[in-house]
Amino acid sequence: MITVAKLFRNETRSLLIALVIVAIFGFSGRAAAQGARLPPPVAQALAQAGIPESAVGIYAQDVTSDQPFLAVEAERALNPASVMKLVTTYAGLELLGPAYVWPTEVYAGGALQQDVLAGDLILKGYGDPKMTLENFWLLLKNLRGRGVREIRGDLVLDRRYFAGEAFDPARFDEQPTRPYNTGPDALLVNFKAIRVQFIPDPEARAVRIAVEPVLPQVAVVNNLTLDKAPCGDWVSRLKLDAQGNSQQARLAFSGNYSAACGERARHYSVLGHTQYLHSLFQELWREMGGTFTGGVREGAAANGARLIAAVPSQSLSEIVRDINKFSNNVMARHLFLTMGAVGGGAPATAEKSSRAVKLWLAQKGLAAPELVLENGSGLSRIERVSSVTMGRMLVNAFRSPVMPELIASLPVVAVDGTMRKRLSGSEVAGQAHIKTGGLSGVRSIAGYVLDAHGRRVAVVLIVNHANAGAGQAAQDALLKWVYDREAGACCTGDAEPRRRRK
């Protein structure tokens, strides 16, 4: 298996190899696309959506073949949205290994006598992508179980594993409270979020709100009105006035909530990383019977500090399932940064990670001169990749030892993840593992179809156009066409797919 460290040691040689590969495969990619034509169902769906062929990139290749049977504008560098997570997760599985885990460590910065820590408590993070509220509670419970009750120093946060780069959660779409806009942090806990649960109470003709975790710095105001309207798009009927900063926040809810909705929940990212973790620690430690009156500060464990507790994350093979099944941007960013830290040394930076991924692709013989990586999640306006690069990478991944972990992480059509409600009742339902992506002006899919003849096909469709939001029908048409095409059918001439024999 290729490791990140080996990539960086062989960087110069890898770049020379990449230049040769670009020359060879760049030409063959152009040749494959010449004279290509869209499958009629796809062309019709795009036309109805008002999306021109020049705004798409399509690629399809049997994983046992060396050439695609469909390539339309496949070399065009496009914004892939969340489909970029396939690059990040495949690279992560190969470079770090499916069993890779992120530790979170606790150090004592003073003597522990009986149940009193006469010094600071230091939390050191390595970028666990999924340190949930429950896992953080277990870490503190472990600490209490080791005899620590009173902490007479401060809470010291060692988050140096990731570079402290400036991050504005409102920069991407002016939705700073949405958890997907939470910035990466080596000591991220619970995605820096609170869960707000809406509970209708018909007898009281009111809507109750329950919050978890309850943090003193976060005020929630309930001015909701309960009604009997159909549930429908319940979120749009909520009116949220979010105010605050890194130190405190106020979420005021007004508008209507339907009793027909039953209990629903939304998550909101609030406070700064330091303030959120400090407040959460105080509340949980107090609930466990502990005593802590100190402050919080950034820093590192001083000489002589003693490791007293640690907890590992879930394995990477489990983490990639959440990243791809549910398109988790924050977890993808953590994985992306981790590859840079492991290969180029801490602190992790996006530049180190981008270099690691590109070197990995070059050593695998995958030319990607058009690839632009910003954060590895696809939540970006500048990330770019072509359909041919994505398609060839998927074919390569199918031949990799980590193939089972990668495919198992992808949403199954009409079954789960972001494809749960797509193509239900069609022949391709349950027969394809497909990652989806969507931004304003971007719609994309990429993954594998097990066709009607038992052939596994890597398939990619990326749309960059103002009407991209209407492009789902074209995506579905492509998946159905790939599933039901006859052997040898292609779209480089007049041939059209024939219905399979019943």
Q: How much is the radius of gyration in Å?
A: 25 Å
Shape: globular
Looking at CATH, the homologous superfamily of the largest domain is DD-peptidase/beta-lactamase superfamily
The proportion of residues in beta strands is 15-25%
Mean pLDDT: 91
CATH class of the largest domain: Alpha Beta
Could you give the distance between the termini?
A: 43 Å
CATH architecture of the largest domain: 3-Layer(aba) Sandwich
**Which stretches of 5+ consecutive residues score pLDDT under 50?**
14-35, 492-502
Describe this protein's structure.
The protein has a five-stranded antiparallel beta sheet with strand order 2-1-20-19-18, with helices on both faces. The protein is globular and about 75 Å long. Helix 8 crosses helix 9. A hairpin with a 2-residue loop joins strand 4 and strand 5. The protein has twelve helices and 20 strands. The C terminus is likely disordered. It is α/β, with parallel strands linked by helices and 502 residues long. It folds into two domains: 265 residues, DD-peptidase/beta-lactamase superfamily (Beta-lactamase, 3-Layer(aba) Sandwich); 212 residues, D-Ala-D-Ala carboxypeptidase C, peptidase S13 (D-tyrosyl-trna(Tyr) Deacylase, Chain: A, 3-Layer(bba) Sandwich).
